[in-house]
Amino acid sequence: MEAESSRPASGRWTTRDILTFVVFNLIIVFVTMAAKMIEDMLLAPQNTFFVGSWLFPLLSTPFYVVMADRIGKQGVLAASILVFGVLYTFMGGLYCAPVAVVGAIVGELVMWGKGSYHDIKRIVGGYIVYWVTFGFYGIMPYLLFREAYMEQLGTYYEAADVAAMVAQYTELPWILLMMAMFAAGTLVGGLIGSKFLKKHVRKAKIA
């Protein structure tokens, strides 16, 4: 309670909030990208679907939980969604920008209300929106330019891998499974993050 009362009452982000946001999002991006690289080295493309969908949020959510609670102000989730959206946009996925904007708006609506960024359940629930948005970065190319995208994939992957990837990102049962795995990984990561937050960060009064 003392740690929370030491925070400024204003809803404006401080320099410390911005620094916290930058550092933690750099960690999240690094962890996610590193996990993706290792996954690609070890698994066939059609099998990464069954690992990354829960592993990425599991690894990232603990960092997000601590960051969201430490900043504790509106805009944390929206800004986090936009970070990945901008990153993927600059990597060539121009369609990611509007997806990120929609995700950011939905995310902040989910987090609307006083104290939402100090409520672990709200934080974790909001972060599921982050990963659903992330999932749509993979879905959108098949919806917008399926044939051209499949042809591009065919230059890198075997036909069986391409066929599996198309099914995973276009057929509803597979999409729902992906979203469920995103949610499961986020929930487990949130549990880890909440325990660390309560036992170490808040106990140490790190504001």
Automatic annotation (TrEMBL):
Keyword terms: Membrane, Transmembrane, Transmembrane helix
Superkingdom: Bacteria
The species this protein was found in: Gordonibacter urolithinfaciens
Pfam families on file: Trep_Strep
Cited InterPro entries: CHP02185_IM
TM ranges: 18-35, 47-67, 79-112, 124-145, 174-197
Protein name per the record: MptD family putative ECF transporter S component
Taxonomic lineage from the root: Bacteria, Bacillati, Actinomycetota, Coriobacteriia, Eggerthellales
